[in-house]
Request: fold
Amino acid sequence: MARDTWFETVAIAQRRAQRRLPKSVYAALIAASERGVTAADNVEAFSELGFAPHVVGAVEKRDLSTTVMGQDISIPVIISPTGVQAVDPDGEVAVARAAAARGTAMGLSSFASKPIEEVIAANPKLFFQVYWLGGRDAIAERVERARAAGAVGLIVTTDWTFSHGRDWGSPKIPEQMNLGTILRLSPQAITRPGWLWKYAKTLRPPNLRVPNQARKGEPGPPFFSAYGEWMTTPPPTWEDIAWLRELWGGPFMLKGVMRVDDAKRAVDVGVSAISVSNHGGNNLDGTPATIRALPAVADAVGDQVEVLLDGGIRRGSDVVKAMALGARAVMIGRAYLWGLAAAGQAGVENVLDIMRSGIDSALMGLGYAAVRDLGRDDLVVPPEFVRALGVPAADHR
Ligand SMILES: Cc1cc2nc3c(=O)[nH]c(=O)nc-3n(C[C@H](O)[C@H](O)[C@H](O)COP(=O)(O)O)c2cc1C
Reply:
């Protein structure tokens, strides 16, 4: 990557994204809901955790590799599915190329702007993510398309609550991109010539359709019509999840688990993995940070299913903290979206490199040869940090 686009931390990528993107597009990446308490706690909770380093005994080379849902990955960080479009003309294909270049896997949102077939061509380590939208027949059709395309796993996200108010105001996202909306956006876009130029070169406006909600080869419905259908679909029961698990047959993750009782039910329906997640603080505000909920969930089911975490990961040492508290790997959301906005594919690679070197240096400080050596003794965990959700009140800490 050229020196002038390289960044050394995710915070710098975020500032670049803010400078490059039209205000409403940047606000869509920040997302969060209501007061933004959960989104903030996801990040801040990591700074409450400390390390207990060794002074001598570090090894020369460290092994950061692991597996998630049957896929070998070179670092314990994978791409979390996100449905934001209009950040970069290559969108999910650029992200897939970056993840492949850095040897890791990717979750593809069903609200993505690129067809799954194109994204898998760039990275075959692809997990397709579904929302409960349109009922069993419609979901089965989408899942079969993903299977035919070669998806190696399914991620089911069920924690969305349609919470729409934000104290700082929500961005106005147009129903579709045509000349009228481009002109309306232009006062914002004109101050962001880099972003505008990227699209001008493609001769195509940002795609606000969701092609993976339709049959292969079709353009897919506009984002808001798919969203409307989702709002009117009855939410899934545990029987529905068991049905989908059975239909898919292969590696299967339930994303959004925060409670021990839910984690145990997920094990009962036969999932292969869960992600301790609160959707990046975009749904039910007031949910604790995911890193606070992780230890109890990992203790309860970590020997039966793969436990991942997503929410608030901004540096490699956050990944190490999550692994020390029981996660097998983590998923990142905003961090790579900011990298994508800042410098396209190279920006996502840059973010994954920041994660790699941060994990590596934390492991060195702790004196380990591999990420699998991490354990709770490596951390300073303040009293009252852990939140054991979904266990009898006496066990609540
Ligand atoms: C802008 C945005 C869009 C998202 N879209 C989806 C989505 O389509 N499907 C999904 O399962 N999660 C979605 N998420 C949640 C992420 O997969 C992930 O849980 C979250 O971003 C993790 O928190 P972090 O952003 O602090 O890393 C989205 C998150 C953001 C910020």
Notes: Residues 29, 31, 42, 80-84, 109, 111, 129, 157, 255, 277, 279-280, 282, 310-313, 332-335 surround flavin mononucleotide (CB under 6 Å). The first strand starts at residue 50 and ends at 51.
